[in-house]
Amino acid sequence: MTERNSLIALSSYIVFGPRRIELLLSFFQSAKKVWEASENKLLEVGLSPRMVKGFGKYRAEFNPKGFFKRLKENKIGVLVFSDRAYPQNLKDLEGRPVALYVKGSINCLKENCIAVVGSRNMSEYGSIVSWDIAFDLASRGITIVSGLARGIDTQAHSAAIKAKGKTVAVFGCGLDRVYPPQNSNLARQIVEEAGLLISEYPPGYPPLPGNFAARNRIISGLSKAVVVVEGAAKSGTLLTASAAAEQGRTVFAVPGPITSALSAAPFFLLQNGARLFTSTQDVISELQT
Predict the structure, then answer these.
(1) C-alpha distances in angstroms, 31 versus 3, 9, 28, 43?
(2) Which residues pair with 253 in a beta bridge?
(3) Which of 16, 183, 204, 274 would bridge with 269, disulfide CB 3.0–4.6 Å?
(4) 219 and 240 Cβ atoms separated by less than 8 Å
(5) What are 37-63's pLDDT values in tens digits?
(6) What pLDDT, in 10s, does the model give residues 73-104?
(7) Are 174 and 205 in contact (CB under 8 A)?
(8) pTM given for the model
(9) Helix 184-192 crosses helix 152-162 at what angle (to 10 degrees)?
(10) Which GO biological process entries does UniProt record here (predicted)?
């Protein structure tokens, strides 16, 4: 395999994770050398015997021709962090994805990107507000980023499409499967309407629960700011907001009724330094600073 294909293959062994792969690359100075390294050499650099054994098994079963053929058949492209087209907003982040699988128009990533996220179990208020926010921003040429989940994410993507704007859906699984399955038509629409599907997981990788917390850092990382519409007290939305704060992104929280449990996450964020969202002009002003 070429050096680039070796890097893609290496990143597809999800057990390593981006940080460990960067350390291995630093030691071996080449993805191809990491991929071809003996088990003893991998043990010498500090990998556990269990991890080395697992990687050896994965490597022995990996079929490069089949893997890259599958990408081509599914019209999935790959960006590695050394590519010029790799998202600039992610390049300097700690723990950046080594490889990103993309389907659709990567031109979406050249525009100002704003994440709109929130509860899967949205209220009528959340439905209306998330739609209006995403529609207005998308109609102004701002790319809407979200996670294709039920609820607020679905509203955000759908509103951007309706506004003839651009939207990016970040997956927590391989791009050859849609999760949740009921959003398959929405995923197809995103691609057809010059939007983008993106994931750090290779084709065939399942939507495991732990994937979505990792996925959230990409949603916030791609974006100049994150708008949180609704979320319960222990909502996963708070993980996206936390990742955004760690990355130096501005977090906006949309206030909701004090009688609603779904106002808990926005209120918590407002109490801890998030900016109050009153209109899309707040976000536009942030982009202009």
Answers:
(1) 6, 9, 7, 17
(2) 228, 276
(3) 274
(4) yes
(5) 999 999 999 999 999 999 999 999 999
(6) 999 999 999 999 999 999 988 889 999 999 99
(7) yes
(8) 0.95
(9) 30
(10) DNA-mediated transformation
